[in-house]
Amino acid sequence: MAVANTIPAERVAQNKRSGSLITLDDLKVEYLSPRGPVRAVDGVTFDINPGEVVGLAGESGSGKSTIAMAILRILQPPAVITGGQVLFGGRDILAMSDSELEDFRWREVSMVFQSAMNALNPVMTIGDQIVDAIRAHSRTSKSDARQRAADLLDVVGIEKARIDSYPHELSGGMRQRAVIAIALTLNPPLMIMDEPTTALDVVVQKEIMYQISELKEKLGFSILFITHDLSLLVEISDRIAIMYAGQIVEMAPARELFEHPLHPYTQGLMQSFPSLTGDKKRLTGIPGSPPDLISPPSGCRFHPRCPKRFEMCDKVVPKLAEVSPGHLVACHLYPEVRAESQNHGD
Ligand SMILES: Nc1ncnc2c1ncn2[C@@H]1O[C@H](COP(=O)(O)OP(=O)(O)O)[C@@H](O)[C@H]1O
Ligand SMILES: [Mg+2]
Fold first, then answer.
1. Predicted structure pTM score
2. Are 198 and 112 in contact (CB under 8 A)?
3. Residue 283 has pLDDT above 60, yes or no
């Protein structure tokens, strides 16, 4: 792969340096609705280190995409960011001006959406679309940009010869790879992938996941990988955060999370895995459905669905607390959480 001449070495080194790359601190986002504010993201705190892959998983509607859009500041009304900070290299993204944001997006953080492969321009070749993306952000000659576009296609596993193909001439998997190539054009230190493989069949999904982890090993960028399918995160993630009803309920190193899931919701998600034979019967783990985010349940938001709930669960909001090194959970089953939650009251 032509990675070496595609990405400057110092940028790769910079991507791999230590210290947190992005920090979300008590982020709150609401969608205003006639019935009242929908608290889609309600006090979310986590960070991503350089070169780290953080997986963000949770049922549909739990607020994952809202977090992604808040980081890129692409939320549209009726969404309002009502609190918190998003620090990137020490700068608060939430305080950036429009022109600062223009520089920031794509150069510092790029994004691949689930539906991105349908967002390719149908009347332009993929090569021209990558060339445009390169030239929109840097002074590069057409021929250099075309060379780089070919290298980028190679990097994501598309033959260079396909550079003059139109999107409709490519399979769904190749279109999604082309979109990843576009997101790589400026080699941003952080890439957000929001359900990037959800529309693809399982085999192509696996191939692309493998390719993404290879790319990040080589280029050293960080990834926030969003999915409703926890099983996709096993191999790719360094750490995993589990979201429920606008909040993070558990966060831990990937292997630790899979071996010792602590939150009853996480345990339920694990039992909902499709079986290895591809049998699709699922979600036996968690009966019921996620709550209304306009008036969420009191105490722990998961308590109405929780098989392990006890007396305090509908009364005291559980705080996220560290119960073993690097393993945080927000559930009253754990003494550290009870101590933390009662100290702070609510
Ligand atoms: N434009 C909107 N108006 C009102 N509510 C919205 C809007 N967009 C999203 N929501 C609500 O915000 C919550 C979080 O949505 P989203 O971030 O898309 O979740 P996810 O990506 O986890 O599926 C959901 O309950 C959804 O209904
Ligand atoms: Mg989403």
1. 0.91
2. no
3. no
